[in-house]
Specification:
By secondary structure, the chain is an alpha+beta fold. The protein is 25% helix and 27% strand. It has four helices and six strands. Strands 1, 2, 3, 4, 5 and 6 form a six-stranded mixed sheet that branches.
Length: 223
């Protein structure tokens, strides 16, 4: 969703509740590769085995519907890592992003997909993103591209950091009542760098949940 299309008052409200950090900031443990912030975060629900995130969004990984309308196109342009846990965490990081925009489309913060793929601060972040759009009476349309992904595991193998760039230059807010698409001049504000801490559900076969989300806005390195 393009932040530049949000009215200023709402944008500030959203910014106040986001967990934002620049790369190399205090929350980036770049000096200790096997320690990940949020690695001990608790988890919630369900337990069916995950399917690859490369499958069509209309499929139901983990038995949860993450389908989106045809005009809401989320592209995950990345290669899956060889490590089994990291690959599963990356798949479910994609499902987490889908779950947020499914909530936007369905006009609810309580959709089963968001509960399935997030916990703790990850769940709060997802609900905040949905709430901003509910309050503005917006949905989304266009193509949002996710790319240059990397993964990093904690030593206990129960948490994985999934980091990636986002290009929202062709992804727009759309007024629900009028159908008007809100566009503006492309700029660096269309690019963000995400770090999502994915934690393994203890009772699940291979389900991972987003427990924390860090966002570097206006990420020139992603252009």
């Amino acid at each position: 969703m393009k932040r530049r299309t949000l009215p200023v008052a709402v944008a500030f409200a959203a910014a106040a509740t986001l967990m934002l950090t620049a790369c190399g900031g205090g929350n980036d443990d770049s000096g200790d590769n096997d320690k990940i912030t949020g690695a001990d975060q608790g988890t919630e629900k369900p337990s069916k085995p995950a399917e690859p995130s490369g499958a069509p969004a209309a499929d139901k990984p983990d038995g949860v519907d993450v389908s989106l309308p045809t005009d809401m196109n989320l592209v995950f342009d990345w290669d899956k890592p060889k490590d089994k846990n990291e690959a599963a965490a990356m798949d479910d990081a994609a499902n987490y992003i889908r779950a947020i925009y499914r909530g936007v489309d369905k006009r609810t913060t309580e959709d089963a997909a968001l509960v399935a793929y997030s916990t703790g601060d990850g769940l709060k972040y997802g609900r905040t993103q949905i709430d901003v759009r509910l309050e503005g009476d917006w949905t989304a349309t266009g193509t949002r591209r996710h790319y240059q992904a990397t993964t990093r595991s904690a030593s206990n193998s129960n948490s994985v950091e999934v980091a990636f760039c986002v290009d929202s230059s062709k992804f727009y807010s759309k007024e629900v009542k009028t159908g008007k698409v809100l566009k503006s001049t492309p700029s660096v504000t269309d690019f963000d760098y995400f770090k999502i801490i994915m934690v393994k559900l203890p009772t699940g076969d291979s389900l991972w949940q987003a427990s924390k989300v860090y966002v570097e806005a206006k990420a020139a390195k992603c252009q």
